[in-house]
Design goal:
Elements: E1 5-9, H1 14-25, E2 29-34, H2 37-46, E3 51-54, H3 60-74, E4 79-82, H4 97-125, E5 128-132, H5 145-165, E6 171-177, H6 183-192, H7 197-205, H8 219-229, E7 241-244
Parallel strand pairs: 1-2, 1-4, 2-3, 4-5, 5-6, 6-7
Helix pairs in contact: 1-8, 3-4, 4-5, 6-7
Length: 252
């Protein structure tokens, strides 16, 4: 029996690690990439990876290197999960070019060129692409114009690729979470919480429709949906953007 292979970007992050765990538990071979070599080393200690490659996927040449390494390690590629992402916030008139480039390059450019590098192999396997987008790719968020632009781009890139790749049997879907309880969320609260991370968390949760019972999304929930969408049993689902946000975007 052929064991499927998935390549996961941002694998050392909160969502990335949950993805590695879910695909491993599901019997897939997992190839991991991240900018953080120490994080990848911890993954290799904790999970039986097919391989790992540290690199900056904002560079198209690095994307090609990562995909080539994944295929060399396992002989095939059945799915690509783009989970690498960063957050910066602030009003547009005070937003730096450096932060803008970082957000767009990591969230959108890297996703585009990882897809570009993986597509020939995914065509051969009639595989799948799964992009982690965001509720901010569905609706505007205050003080997050660059992030919204990047994730809106990811969502529409996903839909366009679904049309382009359908004749080849390759599916492309997006998962759009709300606020996920990860190190990135802690970074947000500590950097942008004006010295009061708990107040930052409360402001985020106040947006949800649960009226005092709201909670942050867990990485494992995102990983479960992503895993399902990469299965052959989901072969009728392509071009979808699936919210996993406790109803945050339901009214928009």
């Amino acid at each position: 029996m052929t064991i499927p292979v998935v390549l996961i970007t941002g694998a050392a992050g909160g969502v990335g690690r949950a993805l590695v765990q879910r695909f491993t538990q599901g019997g897939w071979r997992v190839f991991a990439t991240d900018l953080d070599p120490q994080g990848l080393a911890r993954l290799e200690t904790d999970f039986p990876l097919a391989g790992a490659h540290a690199g900056d996927i904002r560079r198209p040449d690095t994307c090609k290197e990562v995909v080539a390494a994944a295929v060399a390690a396992s002989g095939r590629l059945d799915a690509l999960v783009n989970a690498a992402g960063v957050w910066r916030e602030g009003p547009v008139d005070a937003f730096s070019e450096e932060d803008f480039d970082l957000v767009l390059d990591v969230n959108l450019k890297a996703t585009f060129f990882m897809c570009s590098a993986a597509i020939p192999h995914l065509k051969a396997a009639e595989g799948a692409i799964l992009n982690i987008s965001s509720d901010a790719g569905r609706q505007g968020n205050r003080n997050a114009a660059a992030y919204c632009a990047s994730k809106g781009g990811v969502t529409l890139l996903t839909k366009a690729l679904a049309l382009d790749l359908a004749p080849f049997g390759v599916r492309c879907n997006a998962v759009s979470p709300g606020d996920i309880e990860t190190p990135m969320l802690r970074f947000q609260a500590e950097r942008y919480g004006n010295g009061d991370p708990q107040a930052y968390y409360r402001e985020l949760l106040d947006k949800y429709p649960q009226d005092g019972r709201a909670r942050f999304i867990q990485p494992e929930e995102v990983a479960e949906l992503a895993f399902f969408l990469c299965q052959p049993g989901a072969r009728s689902i392509t071009g979808a953007d699936m919210a996993i946000d406790c109803g945050l975007s339901a009214g928009n």
